[in-house]
Amino acid sequence: MSTVSSPLGSDTPWTEVHKLLLPAYWETLVMVIIVMTMVVLIGGAIGVLLFNTSNRGLFAHKRFNQILSWFVNMGRSLPFLVLMAAIIPFTKYITGTTIGIKAAVVPMVIAGVPFFARLVENALRDLPREVNAVGLVSCGSIWQIIVHVQLSEALSSIIAGITLNTISMIEYSAIAGTIGAGGIGYLAVVYGYQRFDHNIMISTIIILIVTIQMVQWIGDRLVRLTAR
Q1: E strand or H helix at 53, and its extent?
Q2: Whether 62 contacts 131, CB under 8 Å
Q3: Rounded to an integer, what is the distance from CA 201 to the centroid of its chain?
Q4: What CATH number labels 14-226?
Q5: How would you class 93 by CB atoms within 10 Å of its CB: exposed for 0-12, middle for 13-18, buried for 19 or more?
Q6: What's the rounded Cα separation, in Å, for the pair 141 and 42?
Q7: In angstroms, rounded to a whole number, what is the distance separating the alpha carbons of residues 19 and 187?
Q8: Please, is 4 exposed, middle or buried when counting C-beta atoms within 10 Å of its C-beta (0-12, 13-18, 19+)?
Q9: Mean pLDDT of 155-166
């Protein structure tokens, strides 16, 4: 990240703010993209399993569903800051470090996967019961029914879930700045809070608000385009 030195308690000149803000914003985007890719793939698969092992699913298995549901609930039970601190040894074991983007990705994925899994499960539960029946009557395989019937019919709800989860991950990336993960959160903590730099603090708040509004707008547009 580019640095602009400023004495404690003095504000970074507005003409210099972009030198700090743009690299930090890029780090946040990279962090969120990596995390959301893993969250959608892993959480989506778990959500499909949760639904299809329930009594409405294609391969109902009550015991497996209860165990998987328990793990998902456990993953959603801790506030992100507590989770991030609690798994520091695990994060260091996986990434070899407790600071930087790599260290932030681990707790963000662990927090995001169970949340998205529930969103996918709920999206599939909202489908009419006849949807699975149509797939079965058409002699589709389990994989074909999941992909071309369940996920296809629930696409708009899943996109809404991705939008909601992405916004959460942007918020989590800001919290991850407290452990030196980089990005907008780190900039806000180190410069805006610790150095009392009002210009940096105002800039980070504005760019986070604008980013979340853009994500929500794009998500809403995609939901409307894919609604059936």
Answers
A1: none
A2: no
A3: 24
A4: 1.10.3720.10
A5: exposed
A6: 22
A7: 11
A8: middle
A9: 95
pLDDT digits (tens, 9 = 90+) for 41-84: 999 999 999 999 998 888 889 999 999 999 999 988 888 888 88
Q: Which is more confidently placed, 111 or 227?
A: 111
Residue at token pair 């991850």: 176
Size (the chain), residues: 228
Q: Answer for the pair 111, 65: CB distance below 8 angstroms, yes or no.
A: no
Sequence letter at residue 141: S
CA distance 171 to 169: 5
- For the stretch 8-42, pLDDT in tens is 557 788 888 888 889 989 989 999 999 999 999 99
Instruction: Give me the phi and psi of 3, to 5 degrees please.
Output: -125, 145
The DSSP output letter for 5 is: -
pLDDT at site 70: 95
Per-state percent for the chain, helix, strand, coil, to nearest 5: 80, 0, 20
